[in-house]
Design goal:
With 310 residues, the chain is an alpha+beta fold. The chain has 9 helices and 6 strands. The longest helix is centred in the C-terminal third of the chain and has 45 residues.
Amino acid sequence: MNRNIFGKDVNYVGMFKMCIIASIVMMSTFAFMFFKKGLNYGVDFRGGAEIQIRFQEKVDVSALRNDLVASGVPVSSVQEIGEGGKEVLLKVQSEKDDLNVASTKVSEVINQKFGAGQFEILKNDIVGPKAGEQLRNSGFKAMAWAMLAIMIYLALRFDYKYAPGAIVALCHDVTFIVGMFILTQKEFSLQIVAALLAVIGYSVNDTVVIYDRVRELENLHPQDKLEDVVNRAVNETMSRTVLTAGTTFIVCLVMWVMGGGVIHDFFFALTLGVAAGTYSTVFIASPITIALDRMGREKEAARASTPKAV
């Protein structure tokens, strides 16, 4: 019985070369942009102040931002939170050790514009530059340790030839999301690191499903080439991939578009991650696994053809 959602088998293996080249070009471009332009680190990673303010009346966020910038306040974002447009979250970036000056300046500007008693500061969190650097390093270390643990898990559960493909696919997904944040200059903060960790878990789960099917088909048809086995496995699991990835993508997309400013960037990263994770499972992890298997077979053949010393 054909379980392929498209009604007939698709030659995914035939697309591998073109997709690998496209991915290499895209990843190289993002790497160049990283060193040339860099990430727009948020308050969490760069240092600064995060101020939540409740107003008596609805506030024009754009006008408030313009007033703060005109007064010399290094505000990175002004977001409306909650319902009614009366609560605003300000993020002020600064390289200075003492960020209380920036916070005081915000209060002065708002007091001049709206008057005393017309607003209330609900939260004023300050992160120093050194603390932000430590958080940034810890965030990237968390992703590195997560990938290492996944590689060990895959090597133990499957075979050594499977783990590298999955790790390269995960690196591809993370690089793609980070590259899009560089391209759009969206704020890269702790919540984006959380989104990246979620994407890593989601992507490896999708990869394990296909790997399970590949291993099952290898046991059933040991005489078949791995290319044919992988092609059949991807075709047979594509229905599941489309349903799970499609529903997850739709939910993330809706939350990104309609979820509001506070979670906007988080679901932007998740939406990209779901799409990239589905792509990388098929077109990154699978061809690398095939390449490693081919290299192993060639080494075994060369070893068998080498005459033994008497």
